[in-house]
Amino acid sequence: MTGESAADDETTASDGTGETAADDAGGGTATEDEDAGRGGDSSDDDTGGDRHLDREGGTADEMRERGEAGGFAFRVFVSAPRSTVIAGSVVGLWLLLVAVGTLVPEAATALRTGDPVETVFQAFVGATITGVTLVVTLDQLVLSQELGAVGDQRERMTGALEFREEVAEATGEPAPAEPSAFLRVLVTAARDRARELGDTLPASVEDGERSEEAPPPERLAALAADVERDAERVREGLAGAEFGTFGLLAPALNFDYSLLLHRARRLQHVEADAVTDTQRERLDEVATTLELFGPAREHLKTLYFQWELIDLSRVILGAAVPALVTAVSAVLFHEVLLVDGGVAGVSFAVVAVAAAVAVASLPFLVLTAYVLRIATVTKRTLSIGPFTLRGRDDDAPE
After folding, report:
1. Res. 7: pLDDT tops 50
2. Could you tell me if 342 and 168 are in contact, meaning their C-beta atoms sit under 8 angstroms apart?
3. Which of 46, 61, 209, 230 is the most buried (most CB within 10 A)?
């Protein structure tokens, strides 16, 4: 690693004592996270041939570019702060119910006929209590993964220390304890190894072709350029990111290491006779660094999901209080909601009942907002390493 990159990384690393320090590095909840941009992985996207290439010849590195959902849907599913999604869901549900109540003829009269309001909110009371019970069960499930005998804990620590030693050996410096600095060290090493690989190529070979038909030197140049560009972009995104927020995970997910590792390994094995010994050595260093980034990112992703699930439990428990109070009050004093009159064709009774329903639905909307992000990221990062879970690999034999 060059002196410049080592100095850059040193400024981002914070004091810590090991694995536990990384777990406790974040200070905010997931509902307080900033709009962290876009995250993703291509390990489950197409990796064959040049199908991942963008219009400028580089790789499509962001989940929004590689996945099926984009634009507004992607922001709602992944990148937007969960607090914003929850607030938008509550307001959206309220407006939708008001719109439906306005379009339905005699909606206010229907609310006063029989006991529909009481029936609906009785169901909300039972659902809220049941949901809180499930949240407690979820907490126990997450915590159970952290409990174990001393032998199990020792085995976990031994594995973590061995992995950190491998990272230190590959990067040439001790692995930082702070998560964002740890990942920055790896992507910086990948960038530097890619530069060294590019330096082994003739000056006449620049950013070459990425297709399988291109000569090996051009494919090596293309790989070195892609790794260097992608690693530098991710490295900048990780600067100052705190654990416990999506701002740390998003840049790491943007590093398309799966496709890059696939290309590196293919050049190592298929074109072994067409590259020099020096190029082969530098290519192996690039591949080794990319291989270390995979489990490092997956480990931090697991820690983040555990953090997110704990935050989910806390937020649902907090949301259950106003939801339960609203539902019980609507059952006991539902006549208060059935206000006479209206304005611009909108009944006050419809507005009041719709607002009560939106508040009573708050725990479910909180659960939906968190699960949307967790499920979307999990689906796109199911595999680790150069595997493709969608489409087919053009390099596979017929």
Report:
1. no
2. no
3. 61
- Print the SS3 string covering the chain: CCHHHHHHHHCCCCCCCCHHHHHCCCCCCHHHCCCCCCCCCCCCCCCCCCCCECCCCCECCCHHHHCCCCCHHHHHHHHCCHHHHHHHHHHHHHHHHHHHHHHCCCHHHHHHCCCHHHHHHHHHHHHHHHHHHHHHHHHHHHHHCCCCCHHHHHHHHHHHHHHHHHHHHHHCCCCCCCHHHHHHHHHHHHHHHHHHHHHCCCCCCCCCCCCCCCCHHHHHHHHHHHHHHHHHHHHHHHCCCCCCCHHHHHHHHHCCHHHHHHHHHHHHHHCHHHCCHHHHHHHHHHHHHHHHHHHHHHHHHHHHHHHHHHHHHHHHHHHHHHHHHHHHHHHHCHHHHCCCCEECCEEHHHHHHHHHHHHHCHHHHHHHHHHHHHHHHHHHCCCCCCCCCCCCCCCCCC
More confident residue, 216 or 130: 130
d(CA 70, CA 73): 6
Sign (positive or negative) of CA dihedral 21, 24, 27, 31: positive
pLDDT tens digits for range 81-105: 888 999 999 999 999 988 888 887 7
d(CA 302, CA 394): 31
Q: Where are the domains of the chain?
A: 3-380
Residue 271 CB burial class (10 angstroms; 0-12, 13-18, ≥19): middle
Look up tokens 């869901």; give the residue: 89
Question: Taking a C-beta distance cutoff of 8 angstroms, is the pair 45, 52 a contact?
Answer: yes
Give the separation between CA 31 and CA 89, rounded to whole angstroms. 14
